[in-house]
Amino acid sequence: MCDPPRAMPAQGMRDMTASLVTPGSIIAKEGEHEQGEGTAVADGNIISTVVGYVNTSGGSISVTPSKSIVAPVVGDTVLCEVVKLNEKNGEAMILCIEGKPGSIQPQHLYGQFFVTGLVDRFMHQTSDALRRRDVCRAVIKEVKPVVRLDFRERDDCGVLHAICPPCGDTLQPHLDGDWNVQCPTCGHQAYRALADNYGAGWAELDQGASALNNAGKRWGAAAEAMFAKGPAGRATFIAADVREDGRERTYFRFEGQGGGRGGGRQRAAPGTRLFVGGLPREVGTEELRELFKAHGDMTDCVVLTDDAGVNRGFGFVTYAEKSMAEAATKALDGHRINGRRIGVRDADDDKKKGGRKERKEPEGLKLYIGNLPFSATQDQLKEMVSAHATVNEVILATGPGGKAKGFGFVFIAEKDKGDAVVTALNNSEIGGRTIKVDIANAKGGKGGGRGGKGGGRGGNRDGGGKSARELQALREEGEGGKKRKRRPRPKKD
């Protein structure tokens, strides 16, 4: 690490009482004199902290500033230049303190301000009321630990001079809807938190420019449209680099950012955005895009993931036109990916918001087949049941990653053949395992099997001889895959 710069000795300064020194000059050794005003101790030396003249008197050494030093206090009025703007705060360099001629010490050279202290209106960002290089008048509200500035408290505080960002000419006060300044050269319009004597310095004006700030009023459509474009909407277009031929400007949108009330992604047209649920864990954005691209031009496609990057099981697809989204929904709703049936619906359909989409089951009598080997296939079940009835559809239950759960359902067209199929196939074997066949419960029904509550096969309290695995499968099917609600715990006294 480099050593800090050492103070430079001022030759011949020790015995003189009227010598000009600069900050950092050594004027005496520590212990030879008492430290006075305008001095500091560093490395065993007394050094000057200001530009001025050395004075020794009564054993004390001091430096009298060649120009008076002024310190700001709360309530002082300052002139400043905006040098830095953040989203909700900014910084200005203090040029002078009104009524106090003299130099400002470094610790008081810059003042900070908040967006709420600019003008009596809701401002989304500081750059919506100020720009860098604007010259302003402000009131000091705090001096420790840092200088705090306020532009809102008085009408004579605010912007005094501003230049046009595109061309550099001086902006003129001109009220036009949301905008209160205009460039006479390129026609650029903007908003500034104007002081009463904008463009006039200390001159007294009959009508102050602060009246153009529209204090307390809501923003109109023009301003809100600009705020909604985010950072790009506040970008500076240099006049020499832009062909002002009437063409509409296009603004790049920063993903995940926005301005005002229009932040975030641009809202898709109604009916063009689809929700895709039930995705296997191994399916990502590119796989989803590959599946849906055949139905039209997509403007957005994403599979949501958690903090660890693991697929959360759903995603969104946005098409350029509503007809494309409708075609994709018709073709892919219920489509199987790695054994799992996906659901596709309009993401903005108010009728389906806030609730799970009810899956439409195939027609026919629903039979439960349990204790299946994990290697069992839909074709095997279809072939087995087809010998006794007409099979409409076969569903094998799967878990994350498409892993088989060991049970499934078969829908047969002839509802009156259910008992015959159960009698023929129950306790038969597939892949060396004895399977269980029964008529599945209707959703929301109670009890087991055909007997309903307390009666018939499977209606006994002990589950009709079904294994715990079969009963769990039936519960999952009856609940539609939803998690069971936990009982509320009693509050402790």
CATH architecture of the largest domain: Beta Barrel
- Share of helix among residues? 10-25%
pLDDT < 50 runs, ≥5 residues: 1-5, 7-16, 252-264, 444-463
Q: Do you know the CATH topology of the largest domain? A: OB fold (Dihydrolipoamide Acetyltransferase, E2P)
CATH class type of the largest domain: Mainly Beta
Instruction: Write out the strand line-up for the largest beta sheet, numbering strands in chain order.
Output: 10-11-13-15-14
Q: What's the number of extended β-strand segments? A: 31
Please identify which CATH superfamily of the largest domain we are dealing with: Nucleic acid-binding proteins
Secondary structure class reads mainly beta
Strand fraction band? 25-35%
Arithmetic mean of pLDDT: 79
